[in-house]
Amino acid sequence: MSENFQVDLQGIVDLLSNHLYSSPRVYLRELLQNAVDAITARQGMDPEAPRRIDVRTADDVLSISDTGIGLRPDEVRELLATIGRSSKRDEIGFARTEFLGQFGIGLLSAFMVADEIEVVTQPADGPATRWIGTADGRYTIADTADRSEVGTTVTLKARRGAEQWYKQATVVELIRLFGALLPIEIRVDGEQVTDGKAPWEGIGGAQRADLVGYAQDKLGFTPFDVIHLNNPAAGLTGVAFVLPFAANPAERATHRVYLKRMLLAENVEGLLPDWAFFVRAVIDTSELRPTASREALFDDGNLEATRDALGAQLRGWLVRLGSTDPAKLDKFLAIHQLGVKALALHDDEMLRLVHRWLRFETNHGRMTTAELQERSGEIRYVATIEEFRQLAAVAAAQQITVVNGGYTYDSELLERLPEVVPGLVTTRFDPTELSTSFDSLDPDTELQLRPFVQLAQDALDSVGCEVVVRAFEPASLPALYLVDRSAQFASELRATKDRADALWSEVLGALDTHDDSRPQLVLNHRSPLVRRMASLGDRELAQLAVEGLYGHALMLGYHPISPADSALVNRSFLGLLDQAVPTQEDPSR
Ligand SMILES: Nc1ncnc2c1ncn2[C@@H]1O[C@H](COP(=O)(O)OP(=O)(O)OP(=O)(O)O)[C@@H](O)[C@H]1O
């Protein structure tokens, strides 16, 4: 024996209100949608039929009347008495594209705010019917209803605790929210509350100002720019407002979406590609599908194709801006720099699009990649802010432009640029390259300096540093501490290896580059101080001064200071103080 399932209406209402819909306020959207669908159905047969929706509010009662197709008594029995039954699907069960509804559950949402729903309906060709359903799952039908005009009136009686959803001001606000674009006359208590026009549908010069006003009013910001969106395949029109403030690219951007001119939701995700984090779109589409909650778009191939098409339009805007108004593009990038860089790192298209305008800090001021390329053909960068601080001034004095790649994403971007942009060369700058642009001394001077260099070398042997003398700008800089990157890596690795256990020691040992080149202290022969030091007769003082310069160069270059370094610097500092402060005669003697 087979039996039918029973449905617990209270359980279903609970499911709708707590799990499907985000707020009871959607009850009004569902009622409005049914009224619109009924009007659409009637228009199909009688294009001259009126298109009106009348909402009436009173204490704890709300009614919504439409001039739609109405229902015959047999349809009332079939459609209103069965959960999941809908007149808006075709014979094979597909949603009919002209209607908003499709699931056959929308009317139930009224039970989130009502104990009782009354439907009085009058079709063009039959008697009127009154259907009354209650939240406990019962309904009654009477074939004698008092209604003369073709259409339907749905009346709700407030459920205890839901009275706030019936207040006139709330109802007006919700009707405007959901129904602003509907091309139907909608009145609340006799007053027309919508004009049915999308803000982007205006014509003439006032349009841009209107759109800016719309963004200020509805989205709460003055857009940096407005981009028109259009995708006939999805029956889509609308606009994208460019944010005037930096947005977090990790947070998914959400958009205001109207479906067949009825608001789907104000925070729909996935309409635009992830990289388009810098715009908020407002669009209307007739072809994309909603999810059952009608609060999001169904993520199918159609949405994917739409996303690509809209992405192409946003790219087009960026490219146009680059060629027609570079100053404005510059301003745009100043606001969205970080986000654009974050995306360009993963999205080749984006990188190709914006690379020319990306700005980087260099030791010759902020520059775009195009400017950098023009300057020296090859873009040299250092990967950390510390490295940049060490080298910026000295490299600038040698006419070498170095980019500070220490800011978020910058060195990764510089590394990736040549992969995406043909002909662009970027190299990581090795500090020791600097010394190749320093001048060597003539053999005589070199010979003369030999005892001093030997003394300096003896002083710095304990910290493993090699002393060389060169001539370079600026003359005010007496010494520069240079450490080769691969030597630095090798020495850090060895320090870690000494602390690690046997297994890791072996692994780390395999990585060792065996680069034994020592860091260098390059003394600047153009510096008057260095010259004076070289001619000092007092060996002890000369040694203290070299140690002092060593400490100074370490600190100036933000290099790490080892215990041996600090012992040496300490000794030098106290020694120099000792020499500088005269010994006082003891008056008691
Ligand atoms: N105002 C109305 N005028 C005429 N028929 C209506 C009206 N409201 C509801 N109906 C009928 O009742 C059926 C069920 O309505 P309900 O709102 O539950 O589902 P739906 O609109 O079909 O789909 P969805 O759940 O997606 O909204 C509709 O398919 C429609 O035939």
Automatic annotation (TrEMBL):
Q: Which range is the signal sequence, renumbered to this chain?
A: none
Q: Does the keyword ATP-binding apply?
A: yes
**Is the Nucleotide-binding keyword given for this protein?**
yes
Key words of the record: ATP-binding, Chaperone, Nucleotide-binding
Q: Which residues bind ATP?
A: 30, 34, 66, 152
* Any one Gene Ontology molecular-function term assigned to this protein's record: ATP binding
- Superkingdom in the source lineage: Bacteria
Tell me its family.
Belongs to the heat shock protein 90 family.
Q: What protein name applies here?
A: Molecular chaperone HtpG
Q: What is the lineage of its organism?
A: Bacteria, Bacillati, Actinomycetota, Actinomycetes, Propionibacteriales
